[in-house]
Description:
By secondary structure, the chain is of the alpha+beta class. It contains 9 helices and 7 strands; from the N terminus they run αβααββααβαβαβααβ.
Amino acid sequence: xxxxxxxxxxxxxxxxxxxxxxxxxxxxxxxxxxxxxxxxxxxxxxxxxxxxxxxxxxxxxxxxxxxxxxxxxxxxxxxxxxxxxxxxxxxxxxxxxxxxxxxxxxxxxxxxxxxxxxxxxxxxxxxxxxxxxxxxxxxxxxxxxxxxxxxxxxxxxxxxxxxxxxxxxxxxxxxxxxxxxxxxxxxxxxxxxxxxxxxxxxxxxx
Length: 206
């Protein structure tokens, strides 16, 4: 899955970029604004806008010499457009639901790296950091089976390989003390998967 624009897995055209822009706002946008946000050619974007408007998926209002566009969220196709534009969020939600079913619940977990930033491609890993309870051995069958199952599931859900890093709270604290590079990534770009943060509060940037 293209983590920068997951809808490309289903709609590998400019349409996906236009929909992502319009789904992300309720503010009316001119064709030029949509084109700028899509970073694509104006004439190409305008063709897509015209076609979507012709199908009733977009509401249009004349504003002087410009035309303003908004997504018609009452259209029967709007739900599909919204789902396509939030596939990365839906992937994260599936991971959250998977973690909630573990027989031994992690202390905390988060997605980080390109998946969290939203700039990875189809070949990028889905990086997941999991804090393991201190009294659970990584080879504990309950834990090891859950980790392996999550790894396989992420690959099935996204087409991307899962890279799962796990550590105990004490190991995380040691990583913070050593200022390991992964700590900065977790501070700056991680997406929480549990109610508890993966880093202790004292590790936050001052």
